[in-house]
Amino acid sequence: MRSTTLESVPVGVVVERRRAKSVWAEFLWRPVSVFAGTPSAEPWTALDVQAESILFYAGEALIELHRTETAYYRDNLACGTPKLWVVLGPTGSDRPHELLAVTADPAQGEAFTDAGNNIVEAVPMPQDILTIVGQFIATHHVERPFIKRRRQPAEFDRQKEGQGNGT
Fold first, then answer.
1. Rounded to two decimals, what is the model's pTM?
2. d(CA 37, CA 12)
3. Do the beta carbons of residue 110 and residue 118 sit within 8 Å?
4. Spatial CA neighbour of 37 closest among 63, 5, 6
5. DSSP E strand boundaries for the chain
6. Average per-residue pLDDT in the chain?
7. How many CA atoms lie within 13 Å of 165's alpha carbon, on the beta-carbon side?
8. Which residues pair with 124 in a beta bridge?
9. pLDDT tens across 51-79, in order?
């Protein structure tokens, strides 16, 4: 299948592991930030160790920008606090999660929440990524007018009316 991606933005993701205050889970995991570019660190490198939490570099992802999604990107940037949605999936191995996706599309971010085991978290969009997305919108957005469909009145056949009710 041919990709419709016009631009890809490489990003790195930072996740937090925090000790849980629960009898059902030992740790809670959540994405906390995204940054443009790719560091030289290996995925799952510890970045900051605190008493109750550890920050990890989870790995690299690509934010794929599509011409048909520019209205969603524009709405995201216009909301005042633009977000990126990060998706982590369980692995069942020594690395507890794998980085599945990062998106600037709020609709796609919401769609990722349908899979029950994934962790989906919205994080603030960094200024350098905001600039790239803004330029993409300026270059590729085409305003499409909303056309409300009008229902056609149903054709009512008087002859068939009597046949259906036994008269």
1. 0.80
2. 6
3. no
4. 63
5. 5-19, 27-36, 45-49, 53-66, 83-90, 97-103, 119-124
6. 86
7. 5
8. 83
9. 889 999 999 999 999 988 889 999 999 98
